[in-house]
Amino acid sequence: QVQALQGMETGALKLAAVTTAKYIAPPMLSAFCKAHPNIDVHFTVGNREQIAGRFKQNRDDVYIFSQPPEDVNIEATAFMDNKLVVIAPGDYNGPDYCTLHDLAGEKFLLRENGSGTRKAVDEYCTRQGFSFRDPMIIESNEAIRLSVASGLGLAILSEHTLAQSATDNIRVLNVQDFPICNSWYVVTRKNRPLSLTALAFKQSLLERIQ
Ligand code: PGA
C-alpha cells in the first residue's frame, strides 16, 4: 500500500455504494480524505439495482455491495460483516424468541424490489416457505426504521442502519436463523484500470478485514 500511495497527492475517486452501505462508507471515506486532502471525490448512493446498473456501465472506480452483481468482469472481496436483524417497536408485545413463521400475523415493512436487503429477505423466505401478509413497501432504510419506532410494524434491516438510533424506540427480536449473516464487498471491474487514488482507497477498505 505504501508503494501505491507514493506520488499520490491529487487525483479523483468515483465511489458508488448501495444505500445500506452509506452507514459504513462515510467514516472510511473521511479517514481516507484526511490522509489525502486534495482528492476529488464523487460518492453515489442507490439501491442494489441502481448501483449494479452503474457497475454495468463502468461509471465508477470502486463499489460497495452486500450482494455483488454477477458479471465476468467483477472483482469482489468481502471486507466486513453485514447482519440482517428483525426489529420491532420498543413497546411490541407479540412473539419473541420465535421463528419467522410465528410472526406471520404481524405487519412487515419491506424495502422495494431492486434492494439488496429485500433480495436477501426474499431468498430467506423462499427457502423457509414463508410469505409476508400484506406487507408495506417503503423505499428507504431510515423511513423504515422510523416507521418501526413509530409503531407501524416490524422490519428486517441491516444492523448498520440501527447504529445511529440510540434514541429510537426500537428493539431487536430474537428470531431463529437471525441475524442473516452477509458480508460487505469492495467491488471493482477487472477491465477498468484503477488510478493510484482508487487503488489506495480500495486498499484502505481491505485493511479493515477482521
Ligand atoms: P440495498 O443494499 O438494500 O440498499 O439495495 C443492501 C445490499 O445490497 O445488500
UniProtKB/TrEMBL annotation:
The keyword Transcription applies. GO terms for molecular function: DNA-binding transcription factor activity; transcription cis-regulatory region binding. Keywords: DNA-binding, Transcription, Transcription regulation. Transmembrane segments: none annotated. Belongs to the LysR transcriptional regulatory family. This is LysR family transcriptional regulator. The lineage of its organism: Bacteria, Pseudomonadati, Pseudomonadota, Gammaproteobacteria, Alteromonadales. The chain holds residues 84 to 293 of 293 of the full protein.
